[in-house]
C-alpha cells in the first residue's frame, strides 16, 4: 500500500513509535529461541485492551484486564511464550503478580503500570526461576526481537508500522501479534499489541479498540477454538505532541483509519499463518439483512472444516459454501444466492451457473482465495478471513507438546 | 448388550421387522456399488421424521417432510446415494417428485405414502435416466443391501436390530443409517431409518422421535458442518399385533427404551465412522447446571478441532479440554472442574492432579476414548459422541469429488 494524499496513511518499515523501547531474551521456556521480552514507554501511556471470552481466562489475562481497567494507563508490558500460565489455580495468579512486580522493580515504575501476557501450553506451572532470570536479562533497546519472542506455532513474526499526520504532527502506529492455532476470537485473539506515540485519552482508546476489533480480529478463524489467553492491547504515549485526540478532532477519522489498517493487517496475518495453513481465505458477503448477519455468514463460511479442506484440495465444490451459509440463522433468499470463487461466478439464484469447474479449481491453487457471496436479503455486508485445513494442521495439533 | 429380565430388550442379528421388505440395485450414480434402493411395508405404517435445520433443505428432504406431515403415514421410502439433489432449484423439486411418483407406480401405492431420500454431492442435477432405470430394477426382498447402497464416505453399513415384548407380542425394531462427514446435526443427522412392526400412532411416534433424537443423533459431531439432506425417519407398521402404543401403555417405557437403544447405537456408529476417524470419542458431563448445558458442554468438547487432533496424536493435553469447556456459555465452577481421560483423573479443582501424562497418553491409543468432566455447577448430565481429527479427514475432504 502507498501513501494516499486524502488520508495520508503510509505503511513503512518496522520501527517503534517515539518514546517506546523494547527488548527480548532467551529465558529457557523454549529450547532455543527468545521466549521473553517487554515493551516500555518513556512516559505512562493511555492503554486499552480486549480479552478472551473463554471462561477459563488465564491468570496474566485477568491481571492485565484489572491493571488496565484501573485508569487505562500502562507504561510497560512483559511477555513470555512457551507457557500460557493458564489453569494453574492460585499459583498461577501469584506467578503472574510476581512477573508484574519483578518487571516494575527492574523498570523502576509502579506495578499498576505493567501488563503481563503469556502464551503457550495450558496447565503447566510457570517456571518462575526462568522468568526471574529472564527479566534480569532484559534491557531497553530499539530491537524488534519481542515480535519473534512471543511466537508459538507461528511461522513468522506479524508486524506493521503505519505513519500519518495528526494535528500536523507525524504519528506512528506499530502493531505486532502472534497467533496460529486456537484461533476463533470472540472479543480478541491471541496476543496483539499496538503502540503509538499519538496523544489520546485511555477511555477513547478503549472505545476505538473495541469497535475496531469487531471488524478485524473477531472476524478471523483458524480452527473454531478460543484460547484462554487471547488479548489485544494498545498503548498511546502522546510523545508525538498532537492535541489529545477525541471523536470531534479533525484528524480523528484519519487516526481511526490508520488504526483499523494496523488491526486488519495483523488479523489477516494471523489467518494466513494459521496452523498448517497453505492459503489465506477471504470471504466477502453482500446483500445481508444487516451487518451482524453479514459478519456471521462470512465467518461461518471461512470457518467450515469442509470449505477449508476443499480449498486445501483446490476443489471448487461450491455446494459446501451453500451448506455453510444454510447452517446459519441469517436471513437468506433461499432461491436467490450468488457465489463467486476467485471472481468466477459459480452460483446464481442458488443453482449452478455451469461455469467450468476446472478453471475455478485451478485458481484455488493460489495462495489467496476470495469467496464472494450475495445473500440477496438486504444491503449490508460482512467480511471474514481464515485459512485452509491441511494435513499439517492435524500434524501440529496431534503432537503439540512433543 | 444382552437381554435383561427387567425390560426384555434384546439385540439380535440383522432382520427386517414383520411386514417390511427391501431391495437395492446399481443405478450407475456411483461407479460400482449399489447406489439405490427402497424399503416397503406391506401395509401403510405410522411415520415420523426429523429434518435438517440447514436453510438450504434439499428437495427430497422438503418433499419427505411434506409427505410425512400430511397424515404421518408412509408405506415406502426410496433412496439413492451419489447425488444429494440439493441446490438444484425447481429442477430438483421436479426430480424428487418424479422419483416419488415412479416408485409409487412400481409399488402400486399412493404417492403420498412414498418418502424420498438422497445423499451425495450437492449442486449436481439428479441423472433421472439412471434413477428411472434404477427404480425399474427394484423388487421386494429381505435383502439388507439398502444399508450399503445409501453409504457415501462411510466405511461400513450401520445397522441394529432390537427385539422386545410389547403387550405380550414380540416386536422388532431395525434401524440403519449413513453418515460420515458434514456431521453436526441440529435436528437430525444425515440419513437414519428405523422400521418396526409395533403398532403406534403417527403423532405419538413423531413426539417420541423428536425427544430421542435430541439425546442421540443431535449429540454427535464429526466436523461441525450440517448437511442439507439430514433426516431421520421411523416407520411402524403395526404388523406385530400389539395394542397401539400410547404414553399410558404399560409397555410404552420398554418401547421407548428399545427405540433409544436403536438411535444411540446408530448415532455412535456414525461418530465412530466419522470421515477419516480412527477413534470413537465419548464425553460424559456431570455437575451441569441443567441438562441442556450438560449436552452443550459435552458437544463442545467432542467438537473441538484441537481436542480431536490431540486424541488422534494420543497426547493427553487436558488444557484443550478446559479450553473447550470455557468457550461455552454454560455455568462452570471456574475453580472446581474435574477432568478424567479414560478413567484417569487429570484435573481436580481446575488444576493438574499431577498424574503421569505418559500413562494417559498411552491409553489414548485405544479405539475408544472416554472423557469425563464434572463442572461442579449443578446435578445435571450430558453426553456426546465424536471422533478424532486425522490426516485422512483432510484427505477425504480435499478430494471429495475426484
Description:
The structure is a homodimer of 402-residue chains. With 402 residues, the first copy, chain A, is an alpha+beta fold. Chain A has two domains: 264 residues, L-amino peptidase D-ALA esterase/amidase (4-Layer Sandwich); 119 residues, ArgJ beta chain, C-terminal domain (Ubiquitin-like (UB roll)), CATH 3.10.20. Chain A is built from eleven helices and 15 strands. In chain A, helix 5 crosses helix 6. The longest helix of chain A has 21 residues. The two termini of chain A are 40 Å apart. The interface between A and B is large, with 66 and 65 residues.
Structural class of chain A: alpha+beta
Q: Largest contact between protein chains?
A: A-B, 66 and 65 residues
Q: What's the pLDDT, averaged over the residues of chain A?
A: 88
Determine the number of helices of chain A (DSSP H or I, runs of at least 4 residues). Answer: 11
Task: Characterize the overall form of chain A.
Answer: globular
* CATH architecture classification name of the largest domain in chain A: 4-Layer Sandwich
Sheet of most strands of chain A: 9 strands, mixed
Q: How many distinct beta strands of chain A?
A: 15
Percent range of helical residues of chain A: 25-40%
Q: Low-confidence segments of chain A, ≥5 residues, pLDDT <50?
A: 1-6
- How much of the sequence lies in strands of chain A comes to 25-35%
The oligomeric state of the chains shown is homodimer
Within the CATH hierarchy, at the fold level, what is the topology of the largest domain in chain A?
L-amino peptidase D-ALA esterase/amidase
CATH class of the largest domain in chain A: Alpha Beta
| Element-by-element helix/strand order of chain A | EEEHEHEHHEEEHEHEHHHEEEHEEH
Roughly how many Å apart are the termini of chain A? 40 Å
What is the fourth-level CATH superfamily of the largest domain in chain A?
L-amino peptidase D-ALA esterase/amidase
The rounded Rg of chain A comes to 22 Å
Subunit structure (chains A, B): Heterotetramer of two alpha and two beta chains.
Subcellular location (chains A, B): Cytoplasm
Site (Involved in the stabilization of negative charge on the oxyanion by the formation of the oxyanion hole) (chains A, B): 119-120
Active site (chains A, B): 189 (nucleophile)
Amino acid at each position: 500500500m502507498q501513501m494516499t494524499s486524502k488520508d495520508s496513511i503510509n505503511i513503512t518499515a518496522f520501527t517503534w513509535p517515539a518514546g517506546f523501547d523494547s527488548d527480548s531474551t532467551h529465558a529457557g521456556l523454549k529450547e532455543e529461541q527468545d521466549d521473553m521480552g517487554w515493551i516500555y514507554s518513556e512516559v505512562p501511556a493511555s492503554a486499552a485492551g480486549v480479552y478472551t471470552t473463554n471462561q477459563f481466562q488465564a491468570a496474566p489475562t485477568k491481571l492485565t484486564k484489572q491493571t488496565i481497567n484501573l485508569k487505562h494507563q500502562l507504561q510497560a508490558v512483559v511477555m513470555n511464550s512457551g507457557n500460557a500460565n493458564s489453569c494453574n489455580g492460585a499459583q498461577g495468579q501469584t506467578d503472574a503478580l510476581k512477573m508484574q512486580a519483578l518487571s516494575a522493580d527492574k523498570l523502576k515504575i509502579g506495578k499498576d503500570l505493567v501488563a503481563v501476557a503469556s502464551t503457550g501450553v495450558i496447565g503447566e506451572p510457570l517456571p518462575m526461576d526462568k522468568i526471574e532470570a529472564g527479566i534480569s536479562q532484559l534491557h531497553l533497546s530499539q530491537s524488534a526481537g519481542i515480535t519473534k519472542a512471543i511466537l508459538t506455532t507461528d511461522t513468522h513474526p506479524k508486524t506493521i508500522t503505519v505513519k500519518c499526520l495528526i494535528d500536523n504532527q507525524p504519528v506512528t502506529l506499530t502493531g505486532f501479534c502472534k497467533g496460529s492455532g486456537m484461533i476463533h476470537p470472540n472479543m480478541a485473539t491471541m496476543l496483539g499489541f499496538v503502540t503509538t506515540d499519538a496523544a489520546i485519552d485511555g477511555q477513547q482508546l478503549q472505545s476505538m479498540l473495541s469497535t475496531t476489533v469487531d471488524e478485524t480480529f473477531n472476524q478471523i478463524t483458524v480452527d473454531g477454538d478460543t484460547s484462554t489467553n487471547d488479548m489485544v492491547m494498545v498503548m498511546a504515549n502522546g510523545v508525538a505532541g498532537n492535541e489529545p485526540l477525541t471523536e470531534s478532532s479533525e484528524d480523528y477519522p484519519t487516526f481511526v483509519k490508520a488504526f483499523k489498517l494496523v488491526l486488519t493487517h495483523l488479523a489477516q496475518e494471523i489467518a494466513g499463518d494459521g496452523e498448517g495453513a497453505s492459503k489465506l481465505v477471504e470471504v466477502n458477503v453482500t446483500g445481508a439483512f444487516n451487518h451482524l448477519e453479514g459478519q456471521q455468514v462470512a465467518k461461518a463460511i471461512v470457518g467450515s472444516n469442509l470449505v477449508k479442506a476443499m480449498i486445501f484440495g483446490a476443489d471448487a465444490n461450491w455446494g459446501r459454501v451453500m451448506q455453510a451459509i444454510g447452517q446459519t440463522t441469517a436471513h437468506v433468499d433461499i432461491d436467490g444466492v450468488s457465489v463467486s470463487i476467485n471472481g468466477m461466478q459459480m452460483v446464481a439464484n442458488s443453482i449452478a451457473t455451469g461455469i467450468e469447474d476446472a478453471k475455478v479449481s485451478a485458481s484455488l491453487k493460489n495462495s489467496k482465495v476470495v469467496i464472494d457471496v450475495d445473500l440477496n436479503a438486504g444491503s449490508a455486508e460482512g467480511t471474514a478471513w481464515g485459512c485452509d485445513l491441511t494435513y499439517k494442521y492435524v500434524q501440529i495439533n496431534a503432537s503439540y507438546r512433543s
